[in-house]
Automatic annotation (TrEMBL), chains A, B, C:
It comes from the Bacteria. This is Phosphosulfolactate synthase. Gene3D superfamilies: Aldolase class I. SUPFAM superfamilies: (2r)-phospho-3-sulfolactate synthase ComA. InterPro entries: Aldolase_TIM, ComA_synth, ComA_synth_sf. The lineage of its organism: Bacteria, Pseudomonadati, Bacteroidota, Cytophagia, Cytophagales. It comes from Ekhidna lutea. Belongs to the phosphosulfolactate synthase family.
């Protein structure tokens, strides 16, 4: 760090086993990726190519190589998995994971209806090929899943082989874990935490107030995702009590 | 594209006759323009220099040349036209179009009061010099133009020589076609579409929900404008049903 | 400027004595700083490294040097000052100002409780070392300071040696000078202006509507701060009546 400040909370460093930051890249240029690595490479543990932006992005292999050279693995957003499933192209999906040299994949059912047993089978199958993140929660704001079901799904998906489970929020942060207004469904999160080990969960929390809420609840090294590239540095300061929002919390 | 997905809606490619994406540049650096071309050049049909940002931007000729080299024409926002008109400097305006080698110009009356016949005369005059986009709708949220007047104005402006008519929304997307809240004035749009050919209209739709709404109504290849540079890739995925918002719509 | 428009309001140029634009940098890469200087260097008078982002930013000295080479001084956000004070490390704070060659510093009490006499002592002490900006207003939305106290504090802080006083708004623009909704506390601002010379105040105004409001009240060359890097060019157009929002105001 650039200077010494006493009594800061302890932040993990790479390679992390907790305190992950997952960044959503929805179309950064190669130069922007280089810049992101320069400013924030030490604070980014994994990058998601948002939903199916990887389909239209023109220099995908170069981008994956850039991130990899900085020790940052990438994965395709869950919507892409669903796009292949909805077209009965799962085998093609498995092939492109290899073709692009990806070591992680997301399994989700945010936009399609899928029997939960089938979802767990996909997790189990993919877990033999890559490290699997599985996502719980709908992208449909009207579709409220009760807490006990979140827990049930998270448990069975972890048993099926998921490395971590993701709590859904989208880029906007107004579905899944959150209400329309972006407010956290606090009861839901607290109930989940009574049953699922915190380190197995990656909370999507794109809005600052959401990040602050999780950090106050779970501490500096909570796993957070869907962070915008230019919010990684700000998030680091929130994690260690160096932004107004958590300043008093960590004193 | 980076991999094969079956049964996607057909997206036009450049040079397009429908499915235009107009991007608003409100001060990108030359390097950012290079990056935008790299990631999104194939998806951008035309660029608007928002309102009169071209007045204060320091490397305007270099920027225009950069876009041109990528096959992307540029034009000055309508507010600049109005700034010249309000100062009785129309002749100067015509000169700078030539000086900067522009092949498109916008005629609007969003910030000034102008007799509609006069507006049509400007369209007609400029149409001899460049390709004219004319804009309908006020930048004043309090000034509601009824649907029949939108239609009347669009019709006469097209007759006067406008290549396309633009539905006003501003950078923020909360006037003209939209309510204060950003919600689409649905009845207005639907009534317009009963009278004006869809391919003659460019809908300003800066917010994601607005883009989704128009794509669901008019299809993949609707003309959309005021797209932020970093939203071009996301917009492409929405157009072809590869983002949650239109995923089911195109299955 | 790129072309001639008659009867525009007169905008000051660098080095300015009024009409300052203070930009908030919360983690720009070196290349982004170069780009910002290219597009907006003439419009930026001073840069603040938001809150304590300078702690985690990896190339701080290079960045300060870049800005300096463009004639733009930098300073650390007030929250960093408070982080040192809260840890009883004021001497360390003074040392790092020298170590990084900074000529400006901010004194604030937005996140901590501090006796106002003590605050003024810090201002007085630091004013012997650097040029001091002092900030009035809390980061806590619930903590409303009445106008007479704002005035009292601003007066005594200027007497203590502050070069200018800053009206608090945060990055988001929803505390201090503004209501939760972002709306200006108009009565507060107007009352302040009856007692404190306008040129001694730097108004934080991150939202466009806030910038427009201050420009309409105080004119083209009002001092504004917490401007996002990509909003500097747009702000210049608002200052001179070349964006819809102030178009009629300056005609």
């Amino acid at each position: 760090m650039n200077y010494n400040l006493n009594n800061l909370p302890e932040r993990t460093s790479k390679p992390r086993t907790e305190g992950y930051t997952m960044v959503m890249d929805k179309g950064l240029s190669l130069r922007e990726v280089e810049d992101l690595i320069e400013t924030s490479g030490n604070y980014i543990d994994i990058v998601k190519f948002g939903w199916a932006t990887s389909y239209v992005y023109p220099k995908l292999k170069e981008k994956i190589a850039l991130y990899k050279s900085a020790g940052i693995p990438c994965y395709f957003g869950g919507t892409l998995f669903e796009a292949f499933i909805a077209r009965d192209q799962f085998a093609d999906y498995q092939k492109i994971l290899d073709e692009f040299g990806l070591e992680y994949a997301e399994v989700s059912d945010g936009s399609i209806e899928m029997d939960h047993d089938i979802k767990c089978e996909y997790i189990s199958t993919l877990a033999k090929q890559v490290t699997v993140l599985s996502e719980v929660g709908s992208k449909d704001a009207a579709k409220i899943i009760p807490p006990y079901k979140w827990i049930q799904q998270m448990e069975t998906e972890l048993e099926a082989g998921a490395w971590k489970v993701i709590g859904e929020a989208r880029e906007s942060g107004n579905v899944g874990l959150f209400r329309d207004s972006g407010e956290v469904r606090q009861g839901l999160v607290e109930e989940i935490l009574t049953q699922i080990p915190e380190e197995k969960i990656l909370w999507e929390a794109p809005q600052k107030a959401q990040q602050v809420w999780f950090i106050k609840l779970c501490g500096t090294n909570v796993n957070l995702g869907n962070i915008a590239p230019n919010e990684v540095i700000p998030l680091e300061t929130i994690r260690i009590g160096l932004r107004g929002d958590t300043f008093s919390h960590f004193l």
